[in-house]
């Protein structure tokens, strides 16, 4: 059995919310908890970054200060003692490096960025469309049973195709829209649900 977890909102705070707080640009607080169309969300973010002169190094500086959510590292350690764990995230390798160090280097499947000569993010690249869902389908084809946990709209397809899908601290609107998923509110509950 493999446990597939989302990164932001499950193990670490939402990166874009932290960037919004640091830059005082409220528009960057919009996340996949608010916007189900990922491409629309990322195009919106890239426009804001460019308009405000925010470079990749500025975002990386904010990320370097982010700590895992309280209890996340211990939860991950306990889960890895019983099961293989893969983090399936819509973040980017250029963002995640510092966070993986703080979590003990779990396996991460995510996306990557293009950066222009001036250091601005010029585009984003998905490993594949619906990457979380396709990763779970691929692992199931290899004969693995998959339990998955996430908190946002971009996790729903992954949770639907998993053998067991669990929501972790999701917004109320997601709970109402997807009542078929068990809801967990802390790491003790999530660990029990994944066992």
Index terms:
single chain; 195 residues; thrh gene product, domain 2; 9 helices; seven-stranded mixed sheet; alpha/beta
Mean pLDDT reading: 95
Question: Number of folding domains?
Answer: 1
State which percent range the strand residues make up: 15-25%
**CATH class category:** Alpha Beta
Number of helical segments with 4 or more residues? 9
Poorly predicted parts: none
Set out the fold topology.
Elements: E1 2-5, H1 15-23, H2 38-51, H3 56-65, H4 72-80, E2 84-92, H5 93-103, E3 107-115, E4 121-125, H6 131-141, E5 146-150, H7 156-161, E6 164-168, H8 172-177, E7 182-184, H9 187-193
Parallel strand pairs: 1-2, 1-5, 2-3, 5-6, 6-7
Antiparallel strand pairs: 3-4
Helix pairs in contact: 3-5
